[in-house]
Design goal:
Nucleotidyltransferase, domain 5; alpha/beta; Uracil-DNA Glycosylase, subunit E; 13 helices; 40% helix; 5-stranded mixed beta sheet
Amino acid sequence: MNIITPEGPSDADIVILGESPGDEENLSGKPFVGPAGRLLFDQILTAGGLRRSDCLVSYVHWQMPPGRKWETIPEDDLGMFDTKTLATILRHPRKAIIAVGPYALDFLLKGSARVLKDERVTISKWRGSILMNTYVAEGTPVIPMIHPASVLRSTGYKEFEEDEDISSDRGSLHYKALCQLDARRVAAVVNDSEFRPPKRTIHHAENCSWAELMSILDQVERLSPESIAFDIETFAHTITCTGIAWNALEAVVIPFTEVSGWTIIQRQQIISRLMDLLSGPSKKIGQNLDYDVQHLAQVGIPVTNVWLDTAVAHSILYPEIPHDLGMLTSIYTLEPFFKDMRKEVETADYDATQWTYNGLDCCVTWEIGHKLYAELKATK
């Protein structure tokens, strides 16, 4: 097998990191020249105004794996190319690295592309995230992208390198549009020298006292914001906490379960204050809010002035694209994928991780809601 060395300016601002060469790359000696490569450069990256000549194009593994299977690569070879790839990336400062496919993202996140299948990142979830603190490129924005081979597969083209992380579900035809969106996101990051990821503040029971949380709710009530996004978390069909956000960068999360140091009366009082806000004049935004509203009603908390359901609004505008909050977050915000935080919930006793997760849900829902509303108005 030929060794396919990186191509492009060694000091390029953008590094495009793929997984490994295919047949046409092996024959030509150049990276990304097969069908997937042509799609990547001719139709995807051009959406962001990105040109191949301005990028350093490389692979994690510089040889086509025997039988096209990563499992067949000898450990010594994999380690050697891991070292070469790392040296190539770190040779010069970069403004962005595009991780094309799950193996490339695994390498950047963990320092190795050889991971067990059940530990491999799910590229369809992480795509579009702007990751600033990866193992390989600390402080350099890394933007994961679905492998263009998966786009080809979704449109019926079969001769390409397998990307085992993408299923051929009925929604796969939107992969190309998502890749183009991610290309525009790369361009925005590269062209903005002041770019910083959003810093959201989540107030909850581990970083605030009961009195501080009460004070925050009082301030929000006095502010009387035009709109509030809300979200609940449940365990075994029971509400464990409820959060609200009154802008895109700040949320407060109120636990419904026992909290160390809080009395029953304190918990009742703070939930009552939350009830005042949810039944107040502010317009309410939620994601699949029918679920939340019904659960809150069961515990005697009415939600009034419901204004916009982000899932419903998105389904009206783009019925062909999934409408889950993870997808909407990747399209309408700069918040990196965080939905896996929910996997850490194993009991009803929430902690900082789960409260932060709930607060982030509220913040991004508020942000998404207002952007979707602007799109809905523009379609009239």
